[in-house]
Amino acid sequence: MPSPTLHPDVAHLSFLLGTWKGSGKGEYPTIEPFTFTEETVFGHVGKPFLTFVQRTKDAAGLPLHTESGYLRPVGAERAEFVVSIPSGIVELAAGTVEENRLVLSSTGVHRTATAKEVSATERAYEVDGDTLHWTLAMAAMGQPMTHHLSGELTRS
Ligand code: HEM
């Protein structure tokens, strides 16, 4: 199998590439705090986007949240993100890349008729060597933009 060459348009996002494993914790004013383990893969297929798949498990080792999508380059310093979540949410976001740090704000959160109310999100992914730190805040369930999640992963 030939392996694709990284598309030059995603060069500024290449610091995210790899299989990342670790753990995280979550909280929100409306729910009990929790912890999780996580595996996230940022990949590429030689096209001008990165692929993204995140899988998490709860303390008992059972599947918890999962999401998948694509990071799309916009010029050499910006990116768009499209991600789908099985709880009936599709998140569209855009942001900037600076010093191995990607910061995204939602440009639209779309929900199925039965999905819980989420109106906006803010995400940050920062790589330091082989460590990835990420955070997610959301305006949801009648709350203003409030921290929901953080994770620390190691590139394997
Ligand atoms: C690592 C990823 C995530 C994990 C492990 C996680 C985990 C959880 C857990 C355990 C709960 C409480 C139980 C439940 O309602 O199911 C929860 C609630 C919730 N999460 Fe997350 N979540 C993740 C990502 C997200 C994302 C990306 C969004 C939105 C874009 C989101 C939106 C919500 C909402 C709206 C609730 C309901 C809060 C309520 O009922 O008051 N979560 N999450």
Report on this model:
The protein starts with 17 loop residues before the first strand and ends with a strand. The protein is an all-beta fold. The chain has a 10-stranded antiparallel beta barrel with strand order 1-2-3-4-5-6-7-8-9-10. The protein has one domain: Calycin beta-barrel core domain (Lipocalin, Beta Barrel), CATH 2.40.128. The protein is globular. The mean pLDDT is 97. It has no helices and 10 strands. The site of protoporphyrin IX containing FE has 23 residues, from strand 1, strand 2, strand 4, strand 6 and strand 8. The site of protoporphyrin IX containing FE (HEM) has 23 residues, from strand 1, strand 2, strand 4, strand 6 and strand 8.
How would the blueprint of this fold be written?
Blueprint: E1 18-28, E2 31-44, E3 50-57, E4 63-74, E5 78-85, E6 89-98, E7 101-111, E8 118-128, E9 131-140, E10 146-155
Antiparallel strand pairs: 1-2, 1-10, 2-3, 3-4, 4-5, 5-6, 6-7, 7-8, 8-9, 9-10
The chain binds protoporphyrin IX containing FE (HEM).
- How helical, in percent, are the residues? under 10%
Number of helices: 0
Report, as a whole number of angstroms, the end-to-end distance.
22 Å
Anisotropy-based shape:
globular
Question: What ligand species are in this complex?
Answer: protoporphyrin IX containing FE
